[in-house]
Amino acid sequence: MRDARQLYSLTFEVLRLSSLVELDVNIQTVLRPLMADLVRQVTENVALYTASGNNRVCIDAIMPSAPLMRVIMVGEQVPLPQGAIGRTLMSLMTDGEIDDILTETPVRVGKLVLRRRIDLIRHRGYDMARGERVPGATAVVAPIHHRLKNGACYCMAIVGPSERLDERLEELTLALCKTCKRASRELGAS
User: Fold this and answer.
1) CA distance 87 to 98
2) What is the pLDDT of residues 71-122, one digit of tens each?
3) Which domains are seen in the chain, by residue range?
4) What is the rounded (10 degree) CA torsion for 95, 99, 101, 106?
């Protein structure tokens, strides 16, 4: 912003944005050891996601060395209504926030179908998808609850080739949900 002398100065928006970066760094500092433990336990890709506007973005990922791994791109953005990861993040939002997203973002399935799926995630505590966004890939996703004041929402996902994950879905889901509950406790959720 320019002041009266026509000189540029920083606004409070810079402070707000820097606090979001610091918050994500702190979240990663807390959650990365839990993610690493989960990777050792399940030997599959584990990634951490957050919502950014009407998109979901990967903010951290750990990939073990194993054949046929899907590379998860940290920083990759995808519209929230697409896939299990976005639905899980939306399950942490208010109905008003979801309405805003559905008004502004194209939806591949009907809005009523998406709403029902979000309600199911809220009820059972996880979601999964097989070949929904990427053919041949399966994702198991669980939300992370917290008491942070900035309204940010996070989820963790196990992602990999369907031929390997599909036979282990129950094991993977249990391990992921246990890790996300622990993460939620560490972030102050009750």
Assistant:
1) 10
2) 677 888 888 888 999 999 999 999 999 999 988 887 777 888 999 999 999 9
3) 12-186 (3.30.450.40)
4) 130
